């Protein structure tokens, strides 16, 4: 099963009966190498200690089922990996599972585990969640420990969970996040009003978002969010620089997939002027999101602007960079953002509803998502 790099069952207590969780192969598990699903790191020594999030899960009674596959070195949106295999999209096996946390989303959507951990630097939890029809949360930047997570240094990356229901997601967050308030995360009256952000997305998906808001009976209004496109471009510049610093030494070694080698070569061309400009955009966009959230509880919009393309289309050169146009900006700003499966008319596939909250208000985002989950499940 290409959702997993390796399968095992580990818990702090051999008799534990807690929920099962899988761990993305960019997160350390003691005794296993962290390879990033790449030949370049295949000979890495086993990790000497658990990542902090892994230790917290074990201490909370979770059972670790194995390490999940991923887009090589977490630098891609398709999830296609010719070295370790491409995880199956449980919604449609002909379509990409999304990257980079493809195996984690696939494992949860295929019901192999109750939950999985992924990482999100430019949409790498929310994108696969939307592709695979599951829930994925990018917490507030810095809310969840990255100790023992690759790459070691990042101003964008967040560790977060995938699940099939909000209740399990809340329990996973409580396990990995100190002081996470489960009562607040389950509070039914967590929101009174939402803002629907006007974005460029397929009409059926935009209509699905509007329909979902109506079904919740929450007060809503449509807003424009300044500098979304600029924030997308700035997020690309930052991730390019930081990933090039982390893994650029493998370019030209023959140990990378062709797509990753090309992306890292291009990333290395990012200039200091581009990075400086990205910093200015980061500050302006973060302030714009903060202002928008002064008068509403959460922002909602599609997770992805379109349904995932087929694997064949991706292999034949169809660009996927626009997949992250609505999710990457919130890595730049650091706000918590969750993707919830979204029914759309005329399709058996579900899209994603993205819910963005105030910094530190991860619990409120979960509570609002639970409200949407209940409304969408109503007959």
TrEMBL record:
Family annotation (Pfam families): Amidase
Start and end residues of each Amidase domain: 20-366
InterPro entries noted in UniProt: Amidase (IPR000120), Amidase_CS (IPR020556), Amidase_dom (IPR023631), AS_sf (IPR036928)
Single GO molecular function: catalytic activity
PANTHER family the UniProt entry points to: GLUTAMYL-TRNA(GLN) AMIDOTRANSFERASE SUBUNIT A, TRANSAMIDASE
Protein name in UniProt: Amidase
Native source organism of the sequence: Paraburkholderia azotifigens
